[in-house]
Amino acid sequence: MRRSPCVEAHSYWTLFSEMRPLLKTSAGGGQSQILALRHMFPWFSHLAPDWRGYCDVDRKAGLNPYAVPFRDAGAARSGTAMRAPTLEIPRSQDATGAAPAVRFEALDSWRGLAAIMVVLFHAQIVSNIRLFGLVRSGEAFVDFFFVLSGFVIAHAYLQRLSTPRHVATFFILRLGRLYPLHIFMLALFVLFEMGKAFLPGLGNAADPVFSGTNDPSYLISNMVFAQALWPFDQLSWNTPSWSISAEFLAYALFALAVFLQRSRLVFWLGLAIVAAPVALAALSADGMGAVSGLGGLRAVYGFSVGALLYILFNRSILRQHATTSLRPQPGFWTVAEGAASAGAIMIAWKTHATPWAYGLPFVFALVVGVFAVERGHLSRLLKLRPFALIGLLSYSIYMTHMFLQLRLLNVARLSDKVFQTSLIQQVGHTERYGAGIDTGNLFVGDLIIVGVVLVTVAFSYLTYRLIEKPGQRMSRRIAERLLASREFRRGPAMKQVEPALAKSA
After folding, report:
1. How far is CA 192 from the centre of its chain?
2. What is d(CA 270, CA 357) in angstroms, rounded to the nearest whole number?
3. Over the chain, what is the mean pLDDT?
4. pTM of the entire structure?
């Protein structure tokens, strides 16, 4: 990780915070510097309201409070300006106050790889790939999403949930990130279910229209992100979305904890890390396999581990690895990355669906912590464009793959009826699909799975461009309007700032 412009700006803010007494007593020095900081940090006036008078001094003198360069107040009043270095607005900063200083690119790619693992896990196609033990344990990577989301959300919002208005913008931005694609996919499921009434060949006797997991009574819970929470105890419609429902509960609890008791946040996170798995063990026969009814506890557990990891990471020497000469050589971090990855994969493979699975969030936290440093060659590999693309599309991949795989089963079922083939067999997780595809050749099955992944990525690219991005832009505009006030308006340069959270867990 390189030292980002936002980190540099934070250093300036810290410096002037320490110089605050001098600035208050100074006749002319420091005012324009405060304006520069105010320009770089949209929430500066909220942090230092008693400094606004100094900002007003230069504004009345004709200085643009959103001017990028540092200027000398006295020189400006005399009609001249000192030459000084230009400050660029950090691309990771925006007017909503939801901007991380560092983009964890390797972790983005990890998120994409975890999404692919879930796709393979759900692919009910007899093949060599599907018979691989790690793929059969792919559901465990949902817990990786929870841990990573806790880490990233804490990074982005830990210092930005100090007022009710900022808490409101947090929820607006999170909804804008998750809800548009969720509701779009839910609509596709409903439309296809309606189509089955006109094309009976798409279904079967065991799958009548609007029944089972597609019962209309589950629509409301899905529309309000409650499908994974008690008392809803059955997967429904776009079944992978249970984890989004569960994660949103973790968002809400985290935001409330930060807003109400920031000073005791570590205590509350620790309590959640202890209480959530105990409650899962006591209340759910599925334990760490819980997906509905008690899925929220599973999400809170992993999310809390990730958030606590960020607090520890941010306070440790690891934060300096990108900026000081004290860091070990890349070879050290390459070994650490390889060991963490191999260890996590093996443990997820061997402990999934066993009581040992309760330790998986801590195993995944080790992976997140090591790859957040981004000093090894594996991190560099994960920053390559193919992996970066998968990371960018990870949410779409996760949310669209079930719909596409079910449509593949519909095609296979039609083939059996029209061409008298026997592709549909009772394989895999029959409680969700009712059946799977068996071509009689494992290598043909491998090719079909590869095709499924490629089609899912292609379709996800479309949903990302047409659904996700517009939704994020709209929510960001709403959040910015909510934070807007007469005392702070975005300058023209602020309109060039890119969205800070292009994705999330």
Report:
1. 29
2. 19
3. 76
4. 0.75
